[in-house]
Amino acid sequence: MNYTAVALFAAIVGLTLVITYFAARKTKTANDFYTADGGLTGAQNGIAIAGDYMSAASFLGIAGMIALAGFDGFFYSIGFLVAYLVVLYLVAEPLRNLGKYTMADMIAARFNASKVRGVAAMNSIVISIFYMIAQLVGAGALIELLLGIPYTTSVIIVGILMTVYVVFGGMTATSWVQIIKAILLMAGTAVISFMVFAKFDFSIMKMFSEVKQATPLGDSFLNPGNKFKLPLDTISLNLALVLGTAGLPHILIRFFTVKDAPTARKSVVYATWIIGAFYILTIFLGFGAAAFVGADDIIAANAAGNMAAPLLAQALGGDLLFAFVAAVAFATILAVVAGLVLSAASAFAHDFYSHILRKGQATEKEQMTAARLASIAVALVSMVLALFAQSMNVAFLVSLAFAVAASANLPVILLTIFWRRFNTGGAVTGMVVGLFSSLLLVALSPNIWAVDGSALFVGEALFPLSNPGIVSIPLGFLGAIIGTLVTKSDEVAGNFERILVKANTGIDAATEVAASKE
Amino acid sequence: MHQVSETAKTETTRSAQTIVESASFKQLMREKNAFILPAIVFCLIFYFTLPIMTSYFTFLNRPLLGDITGAWLFAFLQFIMTWTFCTLYNKKARSFDRLVEQIKEESR
User: Fold this and answer.
1) Which of A45, A137, A364, A380 has the maximum number of C-beta atoms within 10 A of its C-beta?
2) Which of B67, B68, B73 has the highest number of chain A CBs within 10 A, making it the mutation to test binding with A?
3) Domain range for residue A323?
4) pLDDT tens for residues A383-437?
5) Taking the CA of residue A304 as centre, how many other CA atoms within 13 Å lie in the half-sphere pointing to its CB?
6) Residue A458 has pLDDT above 80, yes or no
7) What is the domain-level CATH number for residue A47?
8) How does DSSP classify residue A491?
9) How many domains does chain B have?
10) Can you give the residue range of the structural domain that contains B22?
């Protein structure tokens, strides 16, 4: 057992619990719990978004994928970053202006029907839980490997910690855990990248020419096509990555932690710079691991390549750096799962309980209790699912969450803001079609079915692509459009104008009908 | 605890229709659409050009700078593109903010 690693893990647990203690004293109302009272600055929220977003799949997964498959791994880095342009240009500001606590708030701002809110909340919960299973499976495997604690115990430890942060510290604790994690992750990645770069005499040219000699792929290491063989699969993955971020509930709820739309915009700008810098550095992690650890040792530690970054740290800086990087990976997972618990719990407590069940009549105290109970329930369900999902590929679960988010959420978010004709029927159809088509296509895909027994079931996959995006995202849009055209609009006259004004300016204006009554 | 997020909303007695028809709101929407739509369309085309090129053609596999191939250089350009358009929007949005302030002023 690596005692430095144990000490650093304990230090991170201690620090985050201190944060939670102070956050708990500031968490008194539902508004505190869901949005940290809207009191974060643009810079704070930007760093927290980066901390919420750069998950174990990014740090461990991409480093391993670049090390083993070269260019194809870098597709993830590019897509994860460019996605922020969609968030910045189309989603962040209208979302902040229209919503209050959840993504469903934004859609319900226009279509105030229980079924719209209910379906939107269901999507948030499904996406967050898929994403969370991926993080917990990764956490369990990582801690088992690093500290020798069994997988089940590891998942339970992480599960308890995330529940404690959220139940006691709400959004305030979650935000600060994410901010600290982002700083640790950037520092750890920068140190390793610097050491890798130094080994190549600070020459990018030398790095590229030497890394391809070090890998079994040789010249083709630098070329696309080592991992994704079908052209449509590559494009489908890229589509899900670039459009998925703007539909991820745990990212979207971060925009409610700032006071207004201009601050929401500033936070995306900060996040984009940090996230971009991080994903550029994934090249150094991946190339470094390929050159100084070697494909054989990476695969020996974990077939999917998830141990590439910690092994690289060990090769460069011995046990001390290894322990530090392992602790950074642990902090990374804690910060992301806390955000996910909060997003799924807010969909349960705010959308289902407060709005649908209690019709907005729940008291402050009842809302807080519901939010806390929902957090515990979400954490328990995810932990149980993670115990069964131990053998599943982490990167696949994350890309599935992106595909569902892009297919089920994004079309409806965009049409709510931009399409005058859009109606309740379209919103519900779009979300349901997007959700079920992406889930069904994955269930029929090579991720689940393989002739050689390398997947969950043995057999021919009915759907040839491993990523459903290229079919399910257009289906999500089509569902929303056709659903709108075949149903009658129940929208009050002037409601779209009200949404247009509120989305673009934040002004809460009345519709003409309501205004003339005064 | 105060409801800080509530202060972000501006109450108004003007109806949404009046605001939508006002010259300043029309100008805001015109300026926003004229910038946002072409920019996002360009970025998405630029983005998808990379996987389409690498999936169906091999000319980006040619080394251009030492051993660095066209695909990697194009990939780096995606980062430059993202940061550039992020900065551009951030600058441009200041004029949107001024118009929003003006609309709020008129609505009081």
Assistant:
1) A45
2) B67
3) 3-405
4) 999 888 877 767 667 878 899 999 999 999 999 999 999 999 999 999 999 999 9
5) 17
6) yes
7) 1.20.1730.10
8) P
9) 1
10) 15-107
